[in-house]
Amino acid sequence: MSTLDFLRGQQVGAASATAGAGQRAAHWKRYSEGLEAKLDQASEGQVFTNAQLSGAMALVKALGDELRRLSPHNALLDPATLDRIQRQGMAAALTQAGYNYDVGTNRVTKR
Fold first, then answer.
1. Which residues, at least 6 apart from 11, have a Cβ–Cβ distance to it below 8 Å?
2. What angle do CA 81, 84, 90 make, to 5 degrees?
3. Which residues, at least 6 apart from 68, have a Cβ–Cβ distance to it below 8 Å?
4. Quick one: pLDDT at residue 109?
5. Per-chain mean pLDDT for the chain
6. Where along the chain do its domains lie?
7. Backbone dihedral angles phi then psi of residue 2, each to the nearest 5 degrees
8. Using the 8-state DSSP alphabet, how is residue 102 labeled?
9. Which pTM value belongs to this model?
10. pLDDT value at position 104?
11. Residue 65: alpha-carbon gap to chain centroid
12. Domain of life of the organism in this record (predicted)?
């Protein structure tokens, strides 16, 4: 084998490696763009969920104000009762989503 043959072989190998690297880079670029799109979609979903939560909290406040006016000694106005009801609701939702929720410690773990 001559030096020229050796150099040609190196060039062919380098060209092949460069082409493969370009294909891998293109694959990872498409993959990262897909992840960015999913992140954008999740972020939009989070914004919408936060807006829904804000609306629900406004409703709860209005209902609490009206209950306070109509029945100032109602058990649903007791902060401990409200905390218990909220934690039970959270526990039910988290259980349905596949998590364990310790009402006493406020800790969440995956099942």
1. none
2. 140
3. 74, 77
4. 95
5. 91
6. 1-74, 78-111
7. -90, 170
8. E
9. 0.63
10. 85
11. 33
12. Bacteria
- Whether the Cβ atoms of residue 22 and residue 14 lie closer than 8 Å to each other: no
Parallel, antiparallel or unpaired: strands 99-102 and 107-110: antiparallel
Kindly report, residue by residue over 3-49, the tens digit of the pLDDT.
877 778 778 777 777 877 888 899 999 999 999 999 999 999 999 99
Instruction: Name residue 91's amino acid.
Output: A
| Average pLDDT of the residues in 55-61 | 97
| Distance of alpha carbon 57 from alpha carbon 69, whole angstroms | 18
Q: What phi and psi values does residue 103 have, to the nearest 5 degrees?
A: -60, -35
Task: Give the confidence band of 91 by pLDDT, cuts at 50, 70, 90.
Answer: very high
What the block records as the tokens of 107 is 């800790």
What secondary structure, in 3-state letters, does 33-91 show?
Answer: HHHHHHHHHHHHHHHHHHHHHHHHHHHHHHHHHHHHHHCCCCHHHCHHHHHHHHHHHHH
Q: Are 98 and 110 in contact (CB under 8 A)?
A: yes
